[in-house]
Sequence to fold (440 residues):
Amino acid sequence: MNITIIGTGYVGLVSGTCFAEFGVNVICVDKDLKKIKNLRNGIIPIYEPGLNELVKKNISQKRLSFETDLKKSLKNTSAIFIAVGTPSKKSDGHADLSYVYEVAEEIARNLKEYAVVVNKSTVPVGTGQKVYDIIKKINPKLDFDVASNPEFLREGSAINDFMRPDRVVIGCKSEKAKNILRELYRPLYLLETPIIFTQRETAELIKYAANSFLAAKITFINEVSDLCEKVGANVSDVSIGIGLDGRIGKKFLHPGPGYGGSCFPKDTLAMVRTAQEAKSPLGLIEHVVKSNNERKKRMHKRVLSAVAKIKEKKIISILGLTFKPNTDDMRDSPSLDIIPALLKNNCFLKVFDPEGMNEAKLCFKDYSKKIKWCKDSYEACEDSNALVILTEWNQFRALDLKRLKKKLKTPIIIDLRNIYNPTELKNMGFEYYSLGRSIV
Ligand code: UDX
Fold:
């Protein structure tokens, strides 16, 4: 089977490569010639564990190729995946669908024989119908279908999430389209992966509802963590105690500085807007959006209160800049709120992130004079008044704390990911602050 993936960003590149790994012939299309040339040479624009090797393997086995010419890439294709960006509009928080619509128009002008057009990008409910209408209007005689097939990939584990998904969701009516997509996902049958066939609108809503629910779960435990601090409870034990209930589940119950990334912030806002427009507002998700934004904007106060007694110029070390581990992605990372707020409070920062330094330097280029970019955790802690752990990279979980204590000018740690044990750190002589866990 031959398929075409339009958009070689995070979703398109991972999906195209994994479909090629399934044995499908995949052409990934992008307008960015430089990006396509790099991809042809195995140069990957994003950090995603395992992707580099998988792209090179499938290029060499001639199942994966990269093109800028859409017309050429649509010949003999059975399915065309739209995997372009749908960022939040700055004006009103709605998803910007201009790239999706542009692609739909190009498909209409260049597709000559039947294919199923598949929205892989996260798009508001009803977008599939709009894509159908655009193509039909431009090319009324064309035989085609439009389906929704949302992705549930987490950055940092995207390949595993694609190869071993909890489920595949497909929204379309046509049996012809269903058969093509069923054939495409056949390799997952061996894993008995549930494939849910439903209407397009339902598939579109499943994606937003999933991300909104996950964001709500995180916000819930973040707020419970704050309550724990007030009543002397331990949020880690609360997470375990409720997570063992099969109806709740233990995942996504880790308190932190607030969720970030390219999805939760964008998708919760889009879902809220869709619901408001449909006159069926989602008050819970409206609160999730507000609560999470406020959390990220006040996290720096925990750092300032921990170093309040330091009279001289405060030097603060920050380990972790990306929105989560195993990615170089800085989009909506809590560090984008916390670092400027600390700088505005006259702190000097020494920072390190295993993969995100280049991306972070672009984000903080206006502050470059007050930030020292360090080569590792220990250099970052040299002569600092406090260490903030902001992203739970594995290498930060096994720091040589004795060595760290010698490096720090004052042994203060603010652990915003709860990766250390409060009692152990206290016994080592650290002034240790974390979320929702008083030191017993
Ligand atoms: C998310 C969804 O998980 C995925 O299914 C969807 O396709 C895309 O959006 P992603 O944004 O890559 O994936 O990361 P995820 O692992 O979900 O984490 C999102 C944010 O929540 C991160 O900032 C993370 O630090 C935070 N988080 C996650 C918590 O604060 N606590 C948790 O327990 C889990």
User: Anything to note?
Assistant: The pocket of uridine-5'-diphosphate-xylopyranose is lined by residues 151-155, 211, 214, 218, 252-254, 256, 259-261, 263-264, 323-324 (CB under 6 Å). Residues 200-231 form the longest helix (32 residues).
